[in-house]
Amino acid sequence: MPIQYPLIFSTLFQRLALGTYIMSLISVDVLGVNLNMNLISLVALVLFGIGVLASMIHLGKPARIMNSFNNPKSHLSQEGIIAIVVGMLLMILGLNGLLYNLNTGLQNFLQICVFVFSLMFVFSTGLVYQIFARPAWKTKSVVINFFLSTLSIGSVGTFAWTVFTTGEKTEQLIYISAVTSLCTIIGQLYYSGYVARLGYGVEVRVFDNEFRKVFIAWLITGL
After folding, report:
1. What is the pTM of this model?
2. 87, 86, 78: which is closest to 126 by C-alpha?
3. pLDDT tens for residues 141-165?
4. How far is CA 208 from CA 9, 211, 213, 214, 215, in A?
5. Dihedrals φ, ψ of 96, to 5°?
């Protein structure tokens, strides 16, 4: 199966957006880091929108995009519905202070909603891949790796945002970024071993010509 680059960019931007929002909210409420969550919401909305657009490009024809909402019981429909909810919530929070001023209680409630629906979106996206037509994806480690990579890229994104906007180098965020990145690497290496052992002609070896350059690029950027 050829590499689906729109799908790569889709998952990358979606996880960067939601992961950074999740870890930023944790940093503010748990670690006491001073971050502008309204601005983060706005940036996350843009990144998330790019990810959704890439996902639509992957689906191709408009009819296929509309058909993805036809069955509310399917994980693909649930992913699309949750994406709309997340986008609306991020927009409401992102425009707070620009077009209107939400009271603290409502703002906190909406932030919690974004946090919960973001986790639901990542979980739902992972379940979309649980199909028998793709044996390499029919494993719980796909969902686990989705969560690990979301937290990893979110931790790094939050640390970078903190450094560039406040000048602070929060030690806790460095540790969290290191731990989540290490867990992600372990999870991906385990999964790479899993898909190489599938057999029946559906195994995937990451150092084959088809995948070697992309896999090495992932290793370099990951490190």
Report:
1. 0.86
2. 78
3. 888 999 999 999 999 999 999 999 9
4. 22, 6, 9, 10, 10
5. -65, 130
